[in-house]
Backbone:
């Protein structure tokens, strides 16, 4: 982590995320609520970061800004070396499509749509043709272990399978950064550990992952834990990631 | 993403809600079908009215003699005979806008057959009369130009007169009828023409050659025509030209000074016809207006459903935006959905409209007037309805905030 002074930072090539003095303010200036209050942080390529904090600590706001779904009121955000803090809606959509993958707590899969079509969704907006889409979507589904569930609808899958399907959708466009918002929040603890094992597998193959959790147990699988409180960083520490794979084996 | 990729997306989305999509496009189906059928019915009615009027002789002019004036008392048209047989011949020869002209002499005469007698209007005229009145023969023949000039004692009966004299369903051709004790041979029966707009029976009539009329009923040949001249213009649009030519010709032949009044009058039936056409035009416009309103109602139905669809699929929109859909992608998706709904409605509407127009046309025995431009227009209009009424819901969808949309329950 590098707390950079004065916003005059030169992005280091190994940094996936460089955030400088991020402020997100809601409401009018008088009764303003600062969801993020001068947050600066950088995340290197290949890190596996857990963001923790109580509700209202600003962790969702931080994730939305890191995910280019929202723009900071002030401050600078460089994603993979590119300044994205001043981009328009359509440009942000392009960034999300090419650099980012999202996994949500409630999966956010399209109902009445097959697993394959769900995974193909980002590729449609990337402008890929039908054959390329199917090929890459199949590959992503196999990677999350759903190679035999291609034509299933989300409702026909278990919770863990649904989240793995969502992960397949998040990685199908080969993102630089994978963002997950409470990925185990809707799962029982055993299935949650399996999903975390999948995240660790992706991390080990080189993907940078940032996930939000309120569960200290789940945060132990990360290589770094950032704790937010009242819109500020309370603590930021690297740790030895606990292996989720060995946890699933011992549980079985 | 390209636009053509939006169509399968839209189709998939619409097929997910089959009943709803069907009911939504039904509004447009009814709208387009009513545009096509109503305008076709209106056009059919118009062409029917036109054919009725042209059978009455819309390009027909009536030339009457002028009025007498004795001590300031005006006698009315025809009270003083001013038209001569030479005038008729001159009109036939010298007015190019005239197709044919025929003298018409009228009298009420009692006709006597072997079985019955019947008093009816007898017209003395030439063979052109039948052409001007577009009156076809049902049985037998009409007399020729030569026969009418040679005062042949031939008579052509109207259907009613024939029925009264010989009984209904009897063929009178070849039988004999006496007019004022003079026998005439029935050579033909006219086609049934029905009732005039004023309520009199066109078919209660008899027609004889003009020379025979003069010699047998008027008691001799005269210089003046004791009746009127019927003129048929070259076409319905030439009636005005024909009228001007006749007026100029007659003023010249009658040596009327520049500031003096005409000693004849010309009447133009096309005025009645054009009034009728205005009426049917107004009817067509009214029907079209009703149809357009129903199409608009269909469009509002589409907007309503698209708005429901947008709020139902808010989460889906959020997901699409999160994975990289730009605002214009979302806009295109919902706009295309609305257009597919309305254009599918348009297709079925055209089919239904054509079918209804056919049925109505057969039911009333009209010729089916189906204008291809109307089909193209109403189909285009249905697409336009889709764009117009789909735009607002699509804009709303595209302006959604992805975070809010993802959080939407």
Residues:
């Amino acid at each position: 982590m590098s707390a950079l002074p004065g916003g005059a930072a030169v992005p280091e090539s190994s940094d996936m995320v460089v955030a400088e003095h991020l402020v997100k303010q809601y409401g009018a200036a008088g009764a303003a609520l600062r969801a993020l209050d001068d947050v600066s942080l950088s995340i290197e390529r290949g890190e596996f970061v857990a963001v923790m904090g109580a509700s209202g600590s600003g962790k969702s706001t931080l994730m939305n800004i890191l995910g280019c779904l929202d723009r900071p009121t002030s401050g600078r955000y460089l994603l993979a070396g590119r300044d994205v803090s001043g981009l328009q809606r359509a440009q942000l959509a392009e960034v999300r499509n090419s650099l980012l993958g999202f996994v949500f707590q409630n999966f956010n899969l399209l109902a009445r749509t097959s697993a394959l079509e769900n995974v193909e969704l980002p590729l449609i907006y990337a402008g890929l043709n039908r054959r390329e889409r199917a090929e890459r979507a199949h590959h992503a589904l196999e990677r999350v272990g759903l190679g035999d569930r291609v034509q299933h609808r989300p409702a026909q899958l278990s919770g863990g399978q649904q989240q793995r399907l969502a992960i397949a959708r998040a990685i199908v466009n080969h993102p630089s950064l994978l963002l997950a918002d409470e990925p185990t929040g809707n799962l029982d603890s055993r299935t949650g550990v399996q999903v975390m094992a999948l995240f660790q597998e992706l991390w080990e193959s080189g993907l940078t992952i940032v996930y939000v959790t309120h569960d200290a147990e789940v945060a132990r699988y990360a290589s770094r834990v950032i704790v937010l409180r009242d819109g500020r960083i309370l603590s930021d520490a690297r740790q030895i990631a606990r292996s989720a794979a060995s946890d699933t084996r011992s549980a079985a | 993403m390209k636009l053509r990729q939006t169509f399968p997306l839209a189709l998939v989305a619409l097929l997910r809600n089959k009943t709803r999509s069907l009911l939504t496009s039904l509004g447009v189906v009814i709208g387009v079908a009513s545009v096509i059928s109503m305008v076709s019915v209106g056009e059919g009615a118009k062409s029917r009215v036109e054919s009725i009027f042209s059978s009455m002789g819309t390009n027909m002019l009536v030339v009457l003699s002028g009025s007498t004036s004795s001590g300031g008392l005006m006698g009315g048209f025809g009270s003083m005979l001013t038209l001569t047989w030479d005038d008729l011949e001159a009109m036939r020869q010298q007015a190019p806008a005239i197709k044919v002209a025929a003298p018409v002499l009228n009298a009420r005469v009692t006709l006597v057959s072997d079985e019955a007698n019947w008093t009816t209007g007898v017209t003395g005229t030439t063979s052109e009369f039948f052409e001007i009145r577009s009156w076809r023969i049902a049985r037998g023949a009409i007399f020729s130009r030569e026969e009418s000039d040679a005062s042949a004692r031939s008579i052509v009966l109207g259907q009613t007169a024939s029925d009264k004299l010989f009984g209904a369903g009897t063929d009178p051709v070849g039988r004999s009828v006496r007019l004022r004790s003079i026998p005439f041979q029935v050579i033909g029966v006219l086609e049934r023409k029905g009732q005039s707009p004023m309520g009199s029976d066109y078919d209660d009539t008899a027609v004889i050659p003009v020379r025979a009329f003069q010699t047998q009923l008027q008691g001799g040949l005269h210089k003046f025509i004791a009746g009127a001249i019927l003129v048929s213009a070259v076409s319905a649009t030439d009636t005005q030209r024909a009228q001007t030519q006749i007026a100029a010709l007659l003023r010249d032949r009658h040596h009327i000074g520049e500031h003096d009044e005409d000693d004849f009058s010309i009447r133009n039936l096309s005025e009645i016809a054009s009034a009728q056409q205005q009426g049917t035009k107004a009817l067509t416009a009214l029907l079209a207006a009703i149809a357009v309103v129903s199409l608009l109602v269909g469009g509002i139905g589409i907007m309503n459903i698209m708005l429901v669809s947008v709020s139902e699929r808010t989460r889906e929109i959020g997901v699409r935006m999160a994975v990289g859909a730009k605002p214009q992608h979302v806009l295109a998706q919902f706009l295309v959905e609305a257009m597919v709904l309305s254009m599918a409605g348009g297709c079925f509407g055209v089919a239904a409209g054509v079918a209804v127009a056919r049925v109505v046309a057969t039911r009333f025995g009209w010729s089916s007037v189906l204008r291809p431009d109307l089909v193209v227009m109403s189909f285009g209009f249905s697409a336009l309805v889709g764009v117009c009424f789909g735009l607002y819901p699509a804009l709303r969808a595209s302006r959604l905030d992805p975070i809010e949309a993802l959080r939407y329950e």
